[in-house]
Write a structure and sequence with these properties.
The protein is of the alpha/beta class. It is built from 13 helices and twelve strands.
Length: about 375
């Protein structure tokens, strides 16, 4: 038996004619940089999100960096970010000239704990990066209330949460700006790196666009208003994303069905804790993450049975070598520190059959029954 963690080829085969046609059209028109396919995808994604402005860029990491530069982050400014996430959520703060300030995560949802944010706010705090980790929305009501009280901006990191909802509203529609990644393995993934930023603010949209296009509002004109960077979504990726966007809602429903099946099959198995979904939240399960004190031995067991699993993420951000200079201790972030040793992501992708899911669950039950 061989059960991959994800299977992008299986997804491609379900939409092969449309993907091949889209790629062929880009090649026929030589529309590799900007052009009609990029413009079309920006409009389509903005429409799906119900947002007026979508600024495409090279990748999700760039989208965070661009947003912070446009928001005017200055040296010495502090930005609050969750202690457990991918490093893009913190390294971009430093790259934009600020200082990351970590906050522990909620024990149920892995997202930033609003109850701990207030204690980290100082006169130097400028904003909060909220990460909807694994596809579960953060507690936006509480976070928005804090942000308004302290006059802070919010950037939503939606890299893993396309179409997730909080009280019926799509994540990515709450903050000053929101960041999206279209890395191939994401719920909406390109065939290479790609990203986008959403905002409802026309002035901020213009600033982000100019900064991402070498500091010009008119690429090719030679008129540069500021020093910017080169961060562009290419035509091939845009055309591929337009095809996939039509299937995103259907794929999301299938992810939720698979997660529900896992929930049912793993209930009461060993000390396994399955994902918690908070009331009024819609989880889109970019990752299905369980917790167990026997994580490492379970991972090894499943690997021996041909089942691929991943640890996302094995070291919480404050404990990485990159942030050793901050001198963080396990007691500073007890939830993130505990979870880093217990989390395990199981295979989940829309093309998985119920039989595949049942086989994974069966092997987990067999492990605990030894």
């Amino acid at each position: 038996m061989k059960q991959p963690f994800s299977d992008l080829r299986a997804q491609y085969l379900t939409i092969k004619p449309a993907i091949d046609r889209a790629i062929s059209q880009v090649i026929e028109q030589s529309a590799y940089i900007r052009g009609p396919f990029v413009e079309r995808f920006e409009k389509e994604f903005a429409s799906v999100m119900g947002m007026p402005h979508c600024i495409s860029c090279a990748n999700g990491t760039d989208s965070l960096f661009i947003a912070m530069k446009a928001l005017g982050l200055c040296p010495g400014d502090e930005v609050i970010t969750p202690a457990h996430s991918w490093i893009a959520s913190s390294e971009t703060i430093s790259l934009a000239g600020g200082r990351p300030v970590f906050v522990d995560t909620d024990d149920d949802t892995f997202t930033i704990d609003p109850a701990r944010i207030g204690e980290k706010i100082t006169p130097r705090t400028r904003g909060i990066i909220v990460v909807h980790l694994y596809g579960h929305p953060a507690d936006m009501d509480s976070i928005l209330s804090l942000a308004r009280r302290h006059n802070l901006w919010i950037i939503e990191d939606c890299a893993q949460a396309h179409l997730a909802r909080h009280h019926g509203a799509l994540v990515g529609t709450f903050g000053a700006a929101s960041s999206f990644s279209f890395f191939p393995g994401k719920n909406l993934g390109a065939y290479g790196d790609a990203g986008a930023i959403m905002t409802g603010d026309p002035d901020l949209a213009r600033q982000m666009t100019v900064f991402a296009r070498h500091g010009t509002a008119q690429p090719g004109s030679g008129r540069h208003e500021i020093e910017g960077i080169n961060s562009r979504l290419d035509g091939l990726q845009a055309a591929i994303l337009s095809v996939k966007l039509e299937h995103l809602a259907e794929w999301t429903r299938r992810r939720q069905q698979i997660a529900a099946l896992y929930d049912r099959l793993l209930a009461g198995v060993g000390d396994v804790v399955t994902p918690v979904v908070r009331e009024a939240c819609e989880h889109v399960y970019h990752l299905y993450v369980i917790r167990t004190s026997k994580r490492d031995s379970l991972k090894e067991w499943l690997g021996q049975k041909g089942i691929s699993t991943v640890v996302n993420y094995p070291v919480a951000l404050p404990f990485l070598e990159a942030y050793r200079h901050l001198g963080c201790q396990p007691g500073d972030f007890p939830v993130a520190h505990k979870n880093q040793d217990q989390i395990l992501s199981l295979p989940l992708y829309p093309e998985m059959t119920d039989e595949m899911v049942a086989t994974v669950a069966e092997q987990i039950r067999a492990f605990f029954a030894r």
